[in-house]
Automatic annotation (TrEMBL):
Ranges for domain PLD phosphodiesterase: 235-261, 424-451
UniProt xrefs under Pfam families: PLDc_2 (PF13091)
Protein name per UniProt: Phospholipase D/transphosphatidylase
Record-level GO BP terms: lipid catabolic process
MF GO annotations: RNA endonuclease activity producing 5'-phosphomonoesters, hydrolytic mechanism
Alphabetically ordered keywords of this record: Hydrolase, Lipid degradation, Lipid metabolism, Membrane, Transmembrane, Transmembrane helix
PROSITE patterns listed in its UniProt record: PLD
InterPro entries registered for this protein in UniProt: PLD-like_dom, PLD_domain, PLipase_D/transphosphatidylase
Length: 513
């Protein structure tokens, strides 16, 4: 039925009620549990309302719930997939997996939603299929926020002290978790009757390392609940977010919970601790949405039988940039795939003077890079600092060469460098932006399509000139260090010239003497 339908349309509303989504291809036997989601305004009691696919018609008169409402004849599967109110009908449409249309009508008007071939277990909403029950958060902004900003590996103490001082709750979310000191702090908090919950990714790239198994086993043995995201019904490709809610404080960072990340023994990362109950509540909403769903499992059910080998970072680095406190004009919590892409594009599009970008790597196809180039065309000075680590150097050097060529052709104020740690950190892991020296973005958001569209990512935008100045200083230091990174051919040539010069000077001195 309409097997080749590709055009997506959503026409006029049927009175005040509209079709919000459709779930035509459940994972159950016989497609049991198909449903449609309606959007019903408050104080509405629809009468004479019908749902049809042209073959069957369902009477929807008397829906009592408002907001988004699931309509189905079999509420069992839907109740396991969503916490939306459910309106049960005696019978239901037979929704085609090959694509068709459904219509909502009240005798005078109609709302038609057409969908193409339906992947199994996905919801059609907002013009595309996606894993069911992905969140749909908007950017959450709070004004006048007390913050402490810091960089790693220079000063990890704001992160550790926040966790160690918990009185009421710790909700810790991460991609990987291997830090024994964080484990100790969580266990100590749990033993003080602090509510402690942990959420991690169950299938990180390369596998779960043995040190992570050790630390999570310790938490489980102590009675700390651990949720692992990544079942067959996973809503996101990876749970890549790195944050914590500690009482009424919120911690957001670019770094994993490991010695070489939040422990301060390795990577260059950015972090912020925000002392504000609303920001903490916003992050707690995200944590609950990601933890309390069927695509998470317990650590017991997820523990790998053969973890991959992995070491522990122990190198210490100097503290050139200690943490700094300030009062931010506002802080905005961003999430991907919900809203981060549009919010970051907006930051870049509104830049008037400068953009500073520090990233592990950048996918050339990302719209964020295109927006940065567009800013350079407006005369905004754009500097991009990429990782020089061995695993990213080749592709980053190619991108840098391409951007330099474009900047030269178009005479753009756009420069790109690869980072050179020079014993101040191990490698760049920050995912950060500074716009006009006053707006800072930090968190887990890499600049690639997966991060923007498929992963769960969390970042914060901090609007604060003091924080902007702090991170500008860090960026300038890392940028100057990158000036020392030269191709080996250039270094070899310079060395040869220097040696020849020294030899000539000695010969001249011998001749003079």
């Amino acid at each position: 039925m309409l097997e080749e339908l590709l055009v997506i349309t959503l026409l006029a509303t049927a009175g005040p009620v509209t079709i919000d989504g459709v779930y035509p291809n459940p994972t159950t036997d016989g497609d049991r549990g198909e449903f449609v989601i309606l959007s019903v305004p408050e104080n509405t009691s629809p009468q004479g309302l019908e749902l049809t696919d042209g073959e069957d018609t369902i009477d929807l008169s008397g829906i009592e719930a408002s907001g988004r409402v699931v309509v189905t004849a079999d509420p069992g599967p839907a109740s396991n997939l969503t916490d939306l109110p459910i309106h049960e009908t005696k019978s239901f449409l037979s929704l085609s997996n090959g694509g068709e249309w459904v219509a909502l009508r009240d005798g005078t008007s109609a709302s038609n939603l057409s969908y193409p071939r339906a992947p199994e277990g996905e919801l059609y909403r907002n013009g595309r299929f996606e894993p069911i029950a992905r969140s749909n958060f908007r950017p959450m902004t709070t004004r006048n926020v007390s913050i402490k900003t810091t960089v790693l590996p220079d000063d990890p103490t704001p992160l550790t002290r926040a966790i160690e001082s918990a009185d009421d709750r710790i909700l810790l979310a991460g991609y990987t978790f291997t830090d024994p000191s964080v484990t100790d702090a969580l266990i100590n908090a749990h033993q003080r009757n602090v509510t402690v919950r942990v959420l991690i990714e169950g299938g990180p790239v390369g596998g779960i390392p043995r040190p992570q198994v050790t630390q999570l086993d310790r938490l489980r043995a102590a009675g700390v609940p651990i949720a692992v995201m990544g079942t067959d019904r996973a809503r996101y490709r990876f749970h890549h977010a790195k944050y914590a809610v500690v009482d009424d404080r919120a911690v957001v960072t670019s770094e994993n919970w490991k010695p070489g990340g939040t422990g301060g023994n390795g990577s260059r990362g950015w972090a912020a601790v925000m002392h504000d109950p609303k920001v903490a509540a916003d992050l707690a909403r995200i944590f609950r949405a990601d933890t309390d769903f069927i695509d998470t499992r317990s650590w017991t059910a997820s523990r790998p039988s053969e973890p991959v080998e992995g070491g522990m970072d122990t190198t210490r680095y100097p503290t050139r940039f200690p943490a700094q406190s300030s009062q931010a004009e506002q802080v905005t919590v961003l999430t991907a795939p919900d809203n981060a892409a549009g919010a970051v594009r907006g930051m870049l599009a509104n830049a008037t003077e400068s953009i500073r970008i520090q990233q592990v790597s950048i996918d050339p196809s990302t719209p964020l890079l295109n927006e940065s180039v567009a800013a350079a065309r407006r005369g905004v000075t754009v500097r991009i600092l990429l990782s020089g680590a061995w695993y990213a150097e080749s592709e980053n050097r190619a991108l840098a060469r391409s951007l330099r060529d474009r900047a030269e052709r178009e005479d753009l104020p756009l420069t790109v460098r690869l980072a050179e740690p020079r014993s101040r950190y191990e490698h760049v892991h920050a995912k950060s932006v500074i716009v006009d020296g006053e707006s800072v973005l930090l968190g887990s958001l890499n600049w690639n399509p997966n991060a923007l569209r498929e992963n769960r990512e969390v970042a914060v935008r901090i609007d604060d000139s003091k924080a902007g100045t702090y991170f500008e200083r860090v960026f300038r230091a890392d940028w100057r260090g990158a000036a020392w990174r030269l191709p080996w051919g250039v270094l070899l040539g310079a060395s040869v010239i220097l040696l020849l010069g020294v030899a000539a000077a000695r010969s001249f001195a011998d001749f003079e003497n």
